[in-house]
TrEMBL record:
Basic and acidic residues bias: start-end ranges: 99-116
Residue ranges of the region described as Disordered: 97-144
Recorded superkingdom: Bacteria
Protein name in UniProt: Uncharacterized protein
Coiled-coil segments on the chain, per record: none
Compositional bias of kind Low complexity: 117-144
SUPFAM superfamilies per the UniProt record, alphabetical: Family A G protein-coupled receptor-like (SSF81321)
Keyword tRNA-binding: no
Length: 337
């Protein structure tokens, strides 16, 4: 994916750093320290011992722990994009990837079947309902409800899966982002993979704030998912020597990881929606910043956007003289439906 490579400059660095990077790392370090203070793996864990150790920490020791967490957070922060791609299923290329993709394809087909529109009328509908002059209210209630449900299912299917089968990813999270990259701006001729990094820098403040907020929520869930899974593995390694019920303590961070992954999927859906809205409202800001004349109609808009996408994606030269430069104000129009 390439859409997830865009940063969030309008968001304060401190807020994103704390939510996405620092908080999950702090939770992981604290969890491991508590297990160690309780005695694991050398001794049988006693959490009263952990509480006693924590209560006896001095100021210097607390500052040292905080410094270690801060350094670890700074070192790991640049790997957020790689982590998102890992949860997408882009890496590794093996290790059951084919089986996971086939499972997602079956899920895609199931959602597609749910989106198939039912017959307009049931076989038991009276002949009078077939009259062209009948008002919409004459259609049987269950039929109207089924049509509405199919419409909702279709919208959900298009949001959760890319339209092309070969773009199917091995995870539900990856498929949501693949669907976003496949469809965002496409109605206007944009290839989001190459136009979104440029358009993002020109978004209006309100739109960018919405995009940033949802992107941060998605990234935080991804980081929490990875951190919870890693904490579960560490807990198993530290508690297995003691056997018994202690190993089940690893289920706590594992439950956090599973919940965080579901949150990441829903966060990706919300982020994708905001990207679609950004194209709807701010796409003309890109043309204005490029000093290009705004298109006169929908067809010209699509043709120009396709030409720009091909130029940025494959370095295909723009048609000479197709659109003139406009050297007016460089400030975006503030929207542009």
């Amino acid at each position: 994916m390439t859409l997830d490579a865009v940063g969030t400059p309008s968001e304060t660095v401190a807020r994103r750093f704390f939510l996405v990077d620092y908080l999950p790392t702090y939770g992981f370090v604290l969890f491991v320290l508590v297990l160690g203070w309780a005695g694991a793996p050398a001794r049988h864990p006693v959490f009263a011992r952990a509480w006693h150790t924590a209560a006896g920490l001095g100021v210097a020791e607390v500052l040292l722990i905080s410094l270690v967490v801060l350094v670890a957070t700074i070192v790991l922060a640049p790997f957020q994009l790689a982590l998102v791609r890992l949860v997408e299923g882009a890496r590794p290329r093996r290790w059951g990837r084919r089986r996971a993709v086939e499972r997602q394809r079956r899920r895609r087909e199931a959602w597609q079947r749910r989106a198939e529109p039912p017959s307009a009328l049931s076989p038991s509908s009276p002949p009078s309902a077939l009259s062209p002059s009948s008002p919409p209210s004459a259609v049987a209630g269950p039929d109207a409800a089924a049509v509405q449900q199919a419409g909702v299912a279709e919208a959900a299917w298009r949001a959760r899966f890319p339209s092309a089968d070969h773009l199917t990813c091995p995870t539900a999270f990856g498929n949501v982002l693949a669907a976003m990259e496949d469809t965002a701006g496409r109605a206007y001729g944009h290839d989001a993979a190459v136009t979104w990094p440029r358009l993002y820098l020109l978004l209006d403040d309100k739109v960018r704030a919405a995009v940033d907020q949802r992107r941060n929520a998605m990234d935080a869930s991804v980081r929490m998912c990875a951190t919870g899974l890693l904490a579960a593995l560490v807990a198993v390694a530290m508690l297995t020597p003691h056997g018994g019920w202690w190993v089940f303590l690893a289920l706590a961070p594992l439950a956090v990881a599973i919940a965080a992954y579901q949150g990441a999927v829903h966060g990706a859906l919300a982020y994708a929606e905001s990207v679609h809205v950004a194209y709807d409202l701010c796409r003309f800001n890109l043309l204005t910043a490029l000093h290009l004349e705004l298109p006169a109609d929908v067809a010209a808009d699509k043709a120009l956007n396709r030409a720009l996408s091909e130029f940025w994606r494959q370095n295909v030269p723009l048609p000479e003289g197709s659109r003139g430069y406009h050297h007016g104000s460089t400030k975006g129009p503030g929207g542009g439906g």
